[in-house]
Design brief:
alpha+beta, 7 helices, globular, 30% strand, 278 residues, twelve-stranded mixed beta sheet, disordered N terminus
């Protein structure tokens, strides 16, 4: 297997789209419950519960304050981290693929404005085929050139848009929603209206075609009405088919400043690193 580079946005896709890992996909989405869209006996468009939709829209406001922890899970990809806007810092740990895959990648990202660093761990039989692997797999943090990562969904971070998943765009794309319990919701999303959400890659939305306009989801909020979880069930026509996207938020107001790597643990990022994520 020859590995030249990771395609544009692959990390974002693998991070938020279950089943899309660096080179191979393994396993299924696990035993978690599958959200289902409400049925309509007449085929008519369901009436939107405006109160429920407004509650979901309001649930993302606290996220915009940039002080929370988050996690994302899906087959072949796991991520967790925190955002701490008061210190203009964030950190994320991402794992793409499994140890049995041809190529698995772990990233430890730290952003402390105006600097960013990433530590890579390439594993699998194809790891040595990655261009510049000997300069990437150092066990140290690579200091990133901001001019090279601005707008890069894999390596960059925008402190003006602090939500990695883009939950505000997702809730704005809700086409139908109903309350299913205290702080619990279910309904459908029009993902074609949420292309800006970091939780989705535009290529996935394109692959869904017309199915993107009615994608089932569930969501929960805490006692203060803040979003704690959103689960999106990709239709069978998606890529990958029938997998979940799960995003969680926690510890609102209790995130901490990211710890910068010490100087002896930092090297300047080589060109191969930027090429890998172009």
């Amino acid at each position: 297997m020859t590995v030249r580079r990771l395609s544009a946005g692959l990390v974002a896709v693998a991070l938020f789209t279950p089943g899309v890992a660096a080179c191979t996909t393994t396993g299924d989405a696990g035993p978690s419950a599958t959200p289902s869209a409400p049925a309509s006996a007449t085929g008519a468009v369901p009436e939107v519960d405006t109160d429920a939709k407004q509650a979901l829209l309001d649930s993302t406001r606290e996220i915009q304050n940039g002080n929370f922890r988050f996690s994302t899970t899906g087959a072949g990809s796991v991520a967790e981290g925190q955002v701490h806007q008061p210190s203009q810092s964030a950190e994320m740990r991402v794992r793409l693929g499994e140890s049995t895959d041809d190529l698995a990648i772990s990233l430890d990202l730290i952003h402390a404005k105006p600097d960013s660093w990433v530590k890579l761990d390439l594993q699998g039989q194809a790891a040595t085929s990655v261009p510049g692997a000997d300069r990437l797999n150092l066990g140290k943090y690579h200091h990133l050139d901001q001019s090279r990562i601005q707008g890069n969904r894999s390596l960059g971070f925008d402190f003006d848009k602090v939500d990695p998943a883009g939950s505000e765009a997702l809730t704005q794309a809700v086409t139908e929603v109903r309350r299913t319990g205290d702080g619990a919701y279910a309904g459908t999303l029009d993902l074609s209206k949420a292309a800006d959400a970091g939780a989705l890659d535009p290529a996935v939305i394109t692959a869904l075609g017309a199915e993107a306009k009615s994608v089932p989801f569930t969501a929960t909020t805490d006692a203060q009405g803040r979003l704690t979880e959103m689960v999106i069930q990709l239709p069978d026509g998606g890529r990958p088919a029938g997998q979940e996207i799960r995003v969680t938020y926690s510890d609102y107001g209790n995130a901490t400043e990211a710890t910068k790597p010490s100087a002896d643990q930092v090297v300047e990022a080589p060109p191969e690193l930027y090429n890998l994520f172009d």
